[in-house]
Hints:
Blueprint: H1 4-14, E1 23-25, H2 27-33, E2 36-41, H3 51-60, H4 64-69, E3 71-74, H5 78-89, E4 94-99, H6 104-112, E5 116-120, H7 123-135, E6 139-140, H8 147-163, E7 169-173, H9 178-190, E8 195-201, H10 206-213, H11 236-245, E9 248-252, H12 254-268, H13 274-285, E10 295-300, H14 307-322
Parallel strand pairs: 2-10, 3-4, 3-6, 4-5, 7-8, 7-10, 8-9
Antiparallel strand pairs: 1-2
Helix pairs in contact: 1-8, 3-5, 3-8, 5-6, 8-9, 9-11, 12-13, 12-14
Amino acid sequence: MLTLDLICQAQHRLRGLLHRTPLVHSHALSAHLGANVFLKLECLQKTGSFKPRGAFNKMLSLSTEEQSRGVTAVSGGNHAQGVAYAARQLAISAVIAMPAFTPRNYLDAARQYGAEIALMPDTRAAFAEAFRLRDQGRVMIHPFDDPLVAAGQGTVGLEILEDLPSVRRVYVSIGGGALITGIAAALKAIKPEVDIIGVETRGADAMALSLAENRLVELPAITSIARTLGAPQVSEFTFQHVRQLVKKVTVVSDAATVQALFLILERTKYVVEPAAACCLAAAEEDRSQLQPDDDVVLLMCGGNVSGADLASYWPRFMNESNA
């Protein structure tokens, strides 16, 4: 299991390299949910998501010789930007394998951060290319199946506890599971009574399906609009942590996620991606369980949504809800 000591080591390594993102109280969302609602704004982190935390921690843990060989990763979203940014800051060569369906804003950002992009036909081919590059000598920065990456993401949990010692519930979205693994390991080690709620969207729900069948389940395809949650399969490492530390995993629809996204935008003025907004959608399902004095944190894990995507969501999901 991931230890608190490993997460504290990561916090020490990351000091001064990244933003200590704010935890802000929302009066509007508190009234909406009937509890004291706080937003942990990782959407304001470097590159627009939490991902550089794990990428930096992994790369800073490498030997000088390993760093000289360069790194590789596979990603269709925020992990690519996190690895590219950390590699640039540390003067490490990075080649990132990305599937052809990756949105242009993610491709452009990763290139602007200095990474070389290997564009592959699909996710399976992207993983194969990253493994090929690893076998040639580069160090793999896995998006979730790595304790050092998860420890870096777990520093979010330490910051939540420092800013809100009275926290009662924390909603965290799940892609491959490193973020919730790190946060749950940090929170539960220090304050065991905290409830951690995992959140997935339907069509990107590999963790919920794996928990239901008590084995790793691979999705044949990612059909949710929450592309940054689109890991086709979680790992044994993240699966075991979620099974032991997380109270439950809630799966919400794309429609509920988009409605939550626009509610966050309208009431708080923060632009977040579906992978973050789904946490509000899950909390809405739990509204009857929340008490007025409960301190609830919604993790806004990222804000890398394009204007074109936002424009497409309204006619697809909002017109029907407003009819």
